[in-house]
Amino acid sequence: SSGINAEYGASLGSELKDFEWRLDSESQKFSKAEEQRKTFMVQLYGATEANRILSTEKRLNTDRMKKTKSQARLNHQKSSKMLDPKKGPVKKGALVHSLPKLGEN
User: Fold this and answer.
1) Tell me, what's the pLDDT at 91?
2) What whole-number distance in Å separates Cα of residue 25 and Cα of residue 18?
3) Cβ(96)–Cβ(102) under 8 Å?
């Protein structure tokens, strides 16, 4: 009876050591996976921020281009001597190139 208990105790002790070894091994794997997760999250955050900055720059450049085109269009309209857009530009014959002379007093 005591021989069976000794064998059973040795078996339990061996099984306990196996469980401790597996627990330690799994703990190390978990720690390594957690470090990799943290590294990945930092990289993901950096990529997200870079993408946000690029999107903002692209939007600002697009807005600037639209504004520049709009200003160019306005400048062209101002310089085209158009009094009434419906009638079109002023004809050259209608322009007065010299003023009439004033009568002498």
Assistant:
1) 62
2) 10
3) no
What the block records as the tokens of 34 is 């957690």
Q: What is the dihedral of CA 100, 101, 104, 105, to 10 degrees?
A: 40
The Cα–Cα gap between 46 and 52 comes to 10
Which of 39, 41, 61 lies closest to 49 in space, CA to CA? 41
52, 44 in Cβ contact below 8 A?
no
The stretches of the chain forming alpha helices (DSSP H) are 2-79
d(CA 64, CA 2): 91
Q: Is 0.90 topped by the overall pTM?
A: no
Query: Amino acid identity, residue 77?
Result: Q
Q: Is the confidence at residue 39, as pLDDT, over 80? A: yes
| Phi, psi dihedrals of residue 84, rounded to the nearest 5° | -125, 115
* Rounded distance between C-alpha atoms, residue 103 and residue 105, angstroms: 6
